[in-house]
Amino acid sequence: MDNDPKHTSKVVAKWLKDNKVKVLEKKFYVLSMFPYPSGHFHMGHVRVYTISDTIGHFQRMRGHQVLNPMGWDAFGLPAENAAIERGLDPEEWTKSNIQSMREQLDSLGLCFNWDKEVTTCLPDYYRWTQWLFVKLFKAGLAYQKEAVVNWDPVDQTVLADEQVDDSVRGWRSGALVEQKLLRQWFIKTTNYAKPLLDALAELPEWYGHPSYCPVMYLSINCVCQATSSPEAVFGAAYLSIVPSHRLLHGTSPVRSALERVLQTDRDCLTEVTAHNLFTSQELPLVISSKKEFEGHLDTVIGIPDRSVEDASVARALSWSPVLKGHEDGGHTLLNSAEVCLDTQQHTLRLTPLPRRPERKVDGHLTSTKLRNWRISRQRYWGKPITMVHCGSCGPVAVPEEQLPVTLPKLPSLTGKGASPLEHADDWISCTCPRCKGPARWETDTMDTFVDSSWYYFRYTDPHNQDRPFERYLADHWLPVDVYIRGKEHAVMHLYYARFLSHFCRDQGLVGHREPFKKLLVQGLIKGQTFRAADRGRETISTSQVGTAGWGLYTSAFTG
User: Listed GO cellular component terms (predicted)?
Assistant: First the structure.
């Protein structure tokens, strides 16, 4: 077979010409997850992209209009660390790598829709990522709070649970992960637990059945806790927290009061109370002897009528029953009609708690297997979180017409200490959009998973300057017919991408909820020792090794 590069370029040119098909033909959207621009492709990449290329060619031969796009997941910690090591600007380093990697893809003769290319570190892309964040904030789905986080002492940033391995080490640095209390931004993905589960009826154990309902309690701090018995919150006797709870750490105003009575081998009744927003009663706070509650919870509501264990803790406390016993063995709920409507068979039907805006309380079905999405990162090379902090107004979202909020240029990066943007003295001060008074920009940046949670939409309309995408184009191409990616992204990325798709549907941006029809997992390419190559370190030969001696067709086949 002719391996001459000139012959390859002629073949690719013909493919690209043939790809210009009529818009009215039946569509087929094949998507391979976009790469991080490290500078070099390895054979695992070749395997992924030749699969999508093969599927694309096959569907074109069937007469379909094919979308097989390519882009770059260009923000993130690896680029910042590499730039620090080399004394370069992360943007300069990233753009140089993108140019090199695009040439490598061209050498493989892969037929991508390069006119649909996206790069997440460019303002014309992350403007719309920030726009979606503002939409989430306005919908009540983005919030900030103090939380105990996984802290990588080497990379100096927060890690998601999935980024910590079984030996409690960071996925990139290999350092032992520490627990640290930080103020973080979250997205309420758990609000969508039920619709996300309903769409995956055949996989109920992934998210866990949504049988829990969050309930808000107020002390000096706000405490939110999920319960499987929302109909019984009117008879809650106490709140119990684990010793690692955030109220016992950091700048918590009740920390000293809790520490005075803390004993690790017993349940400890404290002088701190929480205000039950449903009954206006004060509930005592108990520090449990347990390190963790069932379902990885750090707080539980003590409801003695529902639990023998809760009853034993509550005997020394003043509490009111919520179940009235009958001679036939049945029970009647007291003061709980608005949350429980069915006691006919001595069973309690779980329904969402009623909204009480005047008390700032709400509820929805969720699962204890899920956590809200922590998106704060204490690094430079990422999208600025589009919030300002005003002494009078609190956190205020940046108006949509003022987006994007671009990254300032910093003279140097060290990778140590607090968020680098805190040292951008000429940038950090701003004006509050609401009261026009002095304010400060948020200095954390967003997790890179926020970019990849919606990029499949942007591919359908990548040059739109007025909105993230036109609905008619997204509705034409979506859902993706085949999505090609490794299983390592099944827990985080697919969960976040499905959440954003459901949210966009509720916002009227698209007409469907599910973004993907089929996931194709390509597997791993291993060496002679049967160990998977380490993606976090420069130990993998590039795909050019294959094309140099054997040609693109052989490399594609072996990939």
Answer: mitochondrion
What does the alpha-carbon distance between residue 371 and residue 226 come to, in Å, rounded to a whole number?
11
Which sign, positive or negative, has the C-alpha torsion 130, 136, 138, 141? negative
What domain range is 79 assigned to? 10-121+449-521
The domain that holds 333 is classified in CATH as: 3.90.740
Q: Residue 194's pLDDT is what?
A: 82
Distance CA 162, CA 210 (A): 21
Residues 65 and 131 in one domain: no
Same domain, 77 and 157: no
**Tokens standing for residue 260:** 């005075």
What pLDDT shows up at residue 525? Answer: 59
Q: Which of 4-18, 333-347, 353-367, 487-501 has the highest mean pLDDT?
A: 487-501
Q: How many domains does the structure of the chain reveal?
A: 3
Count, in order, helices (H) and strands (E) of the chain. Answer: 16, 24
Chain centre distance of CA 104:
31
Q: Show the CA angle centred on residue 300, arms to residues 299 and 306, nearest 5°.
A: 175
Radius of gyration of the chain (CA): 27
**Cis preceding linkage at 37, omega within 30:** no
What single string gives the DSSP state of each residue in 80-120? HHHHHHHT--HHHHHHHHHHHHHHHHHHTT---EEEEEEET
